[in-house]
Structures are given as structure tokens and as C-alpha cells.
Amino acid sequence: MGFTVNIYYTGTNGNARKFAEEMCKSGVVDRIRAEKGNLRYEYYYPVDFSETVLLIDAWESQEALDFHHKSPMMKEIAALREKYGLKMRVQKFAEIE
Q1: Contact 66, 25 (CB under 8 A)
Q2: Does residue 8 lie within any of the structural domains?
Q3: Cα first-last separation, the chain
Q4: If pLDDT is split at 50, 70 and 90, which confidence band does 1 have?
């Protein structure tokens, strides 16, 4: 069964948006979207929270997400999060059939 993960990245001085932009420009986003089991990987900017970026990330299975979490890309993502000094809040939603 698939599921969606919402990740809220929050920073200061526009750093959350800079992070999302660098994720896209560096090709990390395209590589994640190409991973087996990824259904969706999209950034959004909440209107009321200018220092937050929302990532909507959907996967076919927990195994697919676990494989992603073990990939070398996670080090790249963590380094960018650290570079921009971001905090994360995560929500996971199961697909309802």
C-alpha cells in the first residue's frame, strides 16, 4: 500500500526556498523522482509561512522509501539541509482504499 510523507522545511532569510531551489538545480530531485517506487516528489510554498517549504513525497511502499533512505543521496540532502540551517517536521499519511 502506498503512502505520502509531508515534510515541512523551515529556516530563516529565505533559506528553505534556497534549499528547494538547489535540490532542483543540482538534479537531486530528478534522481529521486526516477527511483523505483517514487510516486511524487514536489515542493510547495505555503502562503502564510514565508520561511517554510512543504515537500510532498509519495511512495509505493515502505520498502521503496527505506531503499531511498539508504541511498547516497541522503547524504547530499542532509548536507544541503545543514548548509541552509533548516529544521524539519514530518507527517506520514497512509493511502486509504
Answers
A1: no
A2: no
A3: 9
A4: confident
